Amino acid sequence: MRRWCAALLLSSGFARGLLHAQFTPTIQSVVNGGAFDSRLSPGCLADVFGTNLGTEASIAVTVGGKPAKVTLALPTQLVIQIPVEAPAGPATMRVGNSAPYNITLQQYAPGLVSRGGAGRGLVHAVHAESGEGVSMANPAVGGESLWLYAVGLGPTDPVVPTGSAAPINPPIPTVATPALTIGGISANVQFAGAAPAQTGIYQVRFMAPSSVPGGNQPIVLRIGGIDSQTLTLPIQGPPPLPAIASVVNGASFAADVPLAPGSFASVFGSNFGVGNQLTGFPARDFSGLSVTFNGIKAPLLHLLGSAGQINLVLPSELPESGTVPVIVNTGNGSSAVFTLTMTSAAPGVFVIPSIANPKRRTASILFANTGWRVMPDTLAQELKIPGNCHASGIAASALCGEPARIGDFIQIYVTGLGKATPGGDLAGTPLATGTVAPSDGKIMYQVVGTPSVSIGGITAAVSYAGVAPGFAGLYQVNTQVPAGAAAGDDVLISVSAPNGRADASTTLAIRP
Length: 512
Hints:
There is one protein chain. The chain is mainly β. The chain folds into 4 domains: 20-105, Immunoglobulin-like; 111-236, Immunoglobulin-like (Sandwich); 243-341, Immunoglobulin-like (Sandwich), CATH 2.60.40; 348-510, no CATH class. 6% of the residues lie in helices and 40% in strands. The chain is built from 3 helices and 43 strands. The strands form 10 sheets. Strands 9, 10, 11, 12, 13, 14, 15, 16, 17 and 18 form a 10-stranded mixed beta sheet that branches. The chain is elongated and about 90 Å long.
């Protein structure tokens, strides 16, 4: 009987220890309640994350032995106000009987309160006159007064005690006045102090600078030599001007390389508008947008305003060397000049993308005089098009895809092969800007400098290279898969111009 009682006592003690370990609070991280970074200061709101933190706002939290105010209590998160009287420097935090958690307090730990939370996105600001929130749909206006909300702006005069809501009247200012910049321009701070009826929250009244351009502008608060995180303040104003980031080969998308007259090109940038237009070639204006190269408007293919992309054909009148200025023009104004380097030829091979294998760059190739695509069987399956074109007896004009074989005649589709004239006559007249090569093939616009092709490192004979009938900017190179080329789904193919420029980044599939 005594042994049984002793065992019961031992087991009960073990259970109590287990329960104690299971429900002891554990602090895992402490972050600034505005910026969500590790900077903390006396009086600052902070988020405490961990386990077993409790669900009662009355739970005891101390910082440096001084009681903090708990404003929200969840098992895995507490929102607290660090004691106003806590000194700057190293300190330990405890939640109930948790192990001590080491933090460091600075005099100032500015963090802007955001609308989306987590210290990111739009700043939590309101129009001073109406009290309405500033948002994308209701932006700030240059010259108006606004309020924003922050934490960690340091002491007030007089001091608002820890855990106390700030009085509504009179307003309680901060000892130090913060500075504020919007879009890099200083704003006039009219007041900074404790937010009325709030605990641990500050408010700052400021005037949005009249010189700040419209759009989403970065806003940063600085106090005591320390910057807050950067948030966004929507400003109403004239729409921003278009801006060019790059002009690239429209097939390979290779950046920082020269382009040739008559090539497909893509202009990437911003503020091209929000509309999209996918038809209209050879128009040189889409929805009030145009792109000039050396003062010549380029024929447009696609306007993807929402994606910041314009696809076009470079004017054939452009020089084959040197540089030309590129400008995007919209109803809101013109972009700054982008300088584009020109060359006689700069091949770019079109590709058929694969979602299943994004690194694969299957060249856009047809079996000669058919609608069949040369591609791996797996890519045809991914694209849900018929395969085994030859074996299945599929009509030559139908859509189909399969690997090529040694000896097959193929047509490679590229851009940037340079000057093309009837019959490839060096003295002939190039295809005029905005026109297409005759679709009936009666006049073939052949390049004046025949490119070379290698497949798997083996030279392939080129029987024709010129503008594809019915197109502008699109060239086709007719060749034959050479003997000795290795089989595989990703055999390297290279198309090189006489000037030495090449695109060797694509592949084709060859069946054993």
